[in-house]
């Protein structure tokens, strides 16, 4: 009986470590949107902020105040931003990747 309990605890421990390792690896890989954001956007938007205009952060309340409520709105803005922001046309950032960045922003900076 005691051996079965030890075996069960050992098995649960192994499974817990395996699950934790997978989660860490998945988090380390990140999403394509996060990868692109970190290459193209983070220098002006560290931690979802905005070094040029504090009223135009990537935080949900500021996005909504600027009428940017969904991924399509963000992609549209990336394509034709206002002064001070680099324009990311479809050649520079294909639609699929632009959408991934937008979804990353919406999920990350609440």
Low-confidence stretches: 3-28
In DSSP terms, counting alpha (H) and pi (I) runs of 4 or more, how many helices? 5
| Outline type | globular
Strand element count: 0
CATH architecture grouping of the largest domain: Orthogonal Bundle
What would CATH call the homologous superfamily of the largest domain?
A: Cytochrome c-like domain
For the record, the count of structural domains works out to: 2
> Structural class given helices, strands, pairing?
mainly alpha
In a few lines, what is going on in this structure?
With 110 residues, the protein is mainly α. 60% of the residues lie in helices and 0% in strands.
Question: Could you name the key traits of this structure?
Answer:
110 residues, mainly alpha, Cytochrome Bc1 Complex, Chain D, domain 2, 2 domains, 60% helix, 0% strand, globular, disordered N terminus
Structure explained in plain terms:
The protein has about 110 residues and is mainly alpha-helical. The chain has two domains: about 1-30; about 30-110, Cytochrome Bc1 Complex, Chain D, domain 2, CATH 1.10.760. The protein has helices at about 1-30, 30-40, 60-65, 70-80, 95-110. Helix 4 (about 70-80) crosses helix 5.
């Amino acid at each position: 009986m005691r051996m079965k309990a030890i075996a069960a605890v050992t098995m649960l421990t192994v499974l817990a470590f395996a699950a934790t390792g997978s989660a860490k690896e998945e988090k380390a890989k990140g999403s394509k949107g996060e990868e692109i954001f970190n290459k193209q956007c983070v220098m002006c938007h560290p931690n979802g902020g905005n070094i040029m205009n504090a009223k135009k952060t990537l935080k949900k309340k500021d996005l909504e105040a600027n009428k940017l409520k969904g991924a399509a709105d963000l992609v549209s803005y990336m394509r034709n931003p206002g002064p001070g922001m680099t324009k990311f046309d479809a050649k520079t950032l294909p639609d699929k990747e632009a959408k991934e960045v937008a979804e990353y922003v919406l999920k990350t900076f609440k």
